[in-house]
Specification:
Chain lengths: ~300, ~300
């Protein structure tokens, strides 16, 4: 069958892009949640993501825990690290500054501090080299498709988890009682308090969910690649910014769509185009979106009277 | 939240009036329902002070809201009305001292969400609807503390009954409602929490005269549901139409108080706050509130 190898190659690239897009989705969801609801531009999100991979590595390398318990503990650890930033820094900044812009900038700087601390802890413990959980914790199986293309069970798991997390988060924010409170706190924390919402609890639980999502992405990536390093977190953070701008801040659907869009574009450039342009793709997309539709592809509808 | 509790004893202060009867005046409410302590007023504020840094916004204000009544707090801009309500509801960032009791239970110094849980809700100045959320979501948010889905639905039905416009526009973002509709939404949202006491901060502000009448009717209807209402207003004419008793707040102090009837005929109130005489009100505005203090009956 002529052309089959090429088709197989293309399918493999598509699978790679979808898996990459799924990790990006998980990563971007947490970043978008914190930014879109609490106005926290958490630059420690990438560090937390790597931190979770590191936790899984620590917990599994001597065979102490198997995959699922290690995943859960690492997600809780990532959530707790993010909550620590909220409790130790963001919360005080939010109450001290009357000006929202100033508060946002201060939180951004505080989160850089948090990122440096977390990165340093991970670097110290791993000797600043690549690290990853042993292959024994997850029996990787490859399923052959047409031609040379194949997909592994961990890749399938990543895609399924990303879709479930995106749908779950979207429903949680849009339909649940707690999700309503999150959106209300995002818009007006004082009035939310007057309606009976415990604002600091909502902020802490939102940051926990954001951190746990970063942790989920970090663990799955660590298990998939079996080699991670601190610098990877920064790469994901930059790409996730592009995702939020392209998709529209605070929009779960926009983030998902943009994550896959950027993943496919980057994969295509690496596979067929000038490889060195790979990191430029995300920023080219930012530029295009800012020119054509500055509010993002999935911006919120108008809700204020003119 | 920084709040230092000075005093604290509910002892008799410089209280011009301590009427025990619920529903005094022309608007007798059902009164006294759900009272945690028999005979205790719905709300009793004792020597409340609010300081922002070195600026004292409210100085030793004491007032009382009998169960089932509507009591008005009148005053010009900057008289300390909003600070008083904010301190009572737990939403101001300031130093608050004094004693606040809800049906005899001390609630002062608690964060706002705890006070809502005790049965008192503030309808904030400027309505403060959550603009991007739909009308229905705003109402559901009002019932945030109620976890029973059935109870929430029942309350939603009651509120729709009272304000049909909120049913008609339930899917619309709250920010797209008119000012009057937003005020109805703010009322409905407060009712969703099923409070015993509702604090209202300037509900008529920025509304057309016809809308002001609708708001006053709504206040009366809310009171008829058995809610005790503390109504803060700059629009004294409107407030005195529904209130049974009124306090006049001036530069952070109670300048005068009395039944709505006496307050309506009080020349100082008439001049200064009702603005019946253009020139008089302008003159007194220049002289400041000393006049009302001096001319107080």
């Amino acid at each position: 069958m002529p052309g089959a190898p090429a088709a197989g190659e293309m399918l493999q690239q598509l699978i790679n892009a979808i898996v990459f897009g799924s990790v990006l989705t998980l990563f971007a969801l947490g970043l978008s949640l914190a930014w879109g609801t609490l106005d926290v531009l958490n630059l420690a999100h990438g560090a937390v993501f790597i931190f979770a991979g590191y936790l899984t590595y620590e917990l599994t390398r001597q065979g102490a825990l198997s995959f699922v318990p290690a995943l859960i503990v690492s997600m809780v650890g990532a959530g707790a690290a993010t909550v620590a930033l909220e409790v130790l820094a963001f919360r005080f900044i939010r109450t001290r500054f009357a000006n929202k812009r100033q508060a946002e900038l201060s939180m951004l700087v505080a989160s850089i501090g948090g990122a440096i601390i977390i990165d340093q802890v991970v670097s110290n413990e791993t000797g600043a080299t690549t690290f990853g959980p042993p292959s024994s914790i997850f029996k990787v199986r490859e399923y052959h498709l047409t031609g040379s293309a194949g997909i592994t069970n961990i890749q399938i798991l990543i895609v399924v988890v990303a879709v479930l997390a995106a749908v779950g988060l979207d429903q949680w924010v849009r339909r649940s009682r707690q999700g309503r409170a999150v959106r209300a706190v995002a818009y007006d924390p004082v009035t939310s308090g007057l309606l009976g919402v415990n604002v600091s609890f909502v902020a802490i639980s939102t940051m926990f969910v954001a951190g746990a999502l970063a942790g989920l992405a970090g663990v799955l990536l660590a298990v998939n690649l079996r080699a991670e390093e601190v610098a990877v977190g920064q790469d994901y953070l930059l790409t996730a910014f592009a995702i939020l701008i392209v998709g529209g801040v605070g929009s779960v659907r926009g983030a998902v769509l943009a994550a896959y869009l950027i993943a496919i574009a980057e994969t295509a450039v690496v596979a067929y185009g000038p490889t060195q342009w790979r990191d430029g793709i995300a920023f080219l997309l930012i530029l295009l979106v800012l020119l054509v539709r500055p509010q993002g592809l999935f911006a919120k509808a108008q809700f204020q009277r003119a | 939240m920084s709040s230092d509790r000075a005093g604290g004893q509910p002892g008799p202060g410089g209280q011009p009036w301590r009427g025990g009867q619920p529903g005094l005046g022309e608007q007798p409410g059902p009164g006294g329902q759900g009272a945690s302590r028999e005979g205790a007023p719905a709300l009793k504020i004792d020597r409340l002070s609010v300081r922002y840094g070195h600026i004292t916004a409210v100085a030793s204000v004491s007032l009382e809201l009998p169960a089932g009544a509507i009591v008005a707090v009148l005053g010009a801009n900057g008289a300390g009305k909003s600070s008083t309500l904010g301190a009572v509801a737990g939403s101001v960032k300031a130093h608050v001292s004094g004693d606040v009791r809800l049906f005899g239970e001390r609630v002062g110094g608690r964060p706002s969400h705890r006070i809502v849980a005790r049965g008192m809700v503030l309808v904030p100045e400027g309505r403060r609807v959550i603009a991007p959320l739909s009308v229905e979501e705003n109402l559901l948010l009002g019932a945030y503390r109620q976890r029973s889905h059935k109870q929430v639905r029942a309350k939603l039905g009651e509120v729709h009954e009272l304000f049909p416009v909120l049913r008609e526009r339930r899917g619309s973002p709250a920010g797209l409602l008119s000012g009057g509709e937003q005020q109805m939404l703010a009322f409905g949202r407060a009712l969703m929490a099923d409070p015993r006491v509702i604090l209202m901060d300037e509900p008529s502000m920025g509304l057309a005269p016809a809308m002001v009448d609708r708001v006053i009717d709504a206040v009366r209807a809310i009171n008829a549901l058995g809610k005790s209402v503390l109504l803060v207003e700059q629009n004294a004419v409107a407030a005195l139409r529904v209130a049974s008793y009124a306090y006049v707040l001036d530069r952070g102090r109670i300048a005068s108080s009395g039944s709505a009837q006496t307050m309506r005929s009080d020349p100082v109130v008439a001049e200064v706050f009702l603005g019946l005489h253009e020139s008089a009100s302008r003159a007194s505005a220049e002289q400041g509130p000393g006049r009302s203090e001096a001319a107080r009956s």
